[in-house]
Write the C-alpha cells for this entry.
Amino acid sequence: MAKFFPLGQVMGFIFSLVLTGIAMLVYFTDMSFTTGMIVLLVTAFIQAGLQFLVFMHAGETEDKWSIYSNIFYGIGLVVLTILGTLLILLWDM
C-alpha cells in the first residue's frame, strides 16, 4: 500500500502551503519594504524549484540534460528581457 501513496507529492504540497503562508505573513504583518521583498523573492524561487522538481518530475527522467538546458535557456531569456527593458526604459539608452 505504501508504494501507491504519493508521499513525495504530499510533502511537496505541504511545503508549498508553508511557503504560501510565509508569503501571506509578509502581506499581513508590518514588515519593511526591503525585508518583505527579500522574503517574497526567496520564497518564490524556492517554491518554483519545488514545483519543478516535485510536481513536474524533473529529477525522474533519464535525459536530464535536455530538461535542465531548457530551464537555463528560459531563465536566460527572462534575464535578457528584464535587462533589455531596464536598459531602454529606466536607464534611457
In short: Residues 10 and 54 are 10 Å apart (CA to CA). The two ends are 62 Å apart (CA to CA). The chain has a mean pLDDT of 86. Residues 64-90 form the longest helix (27 residues).
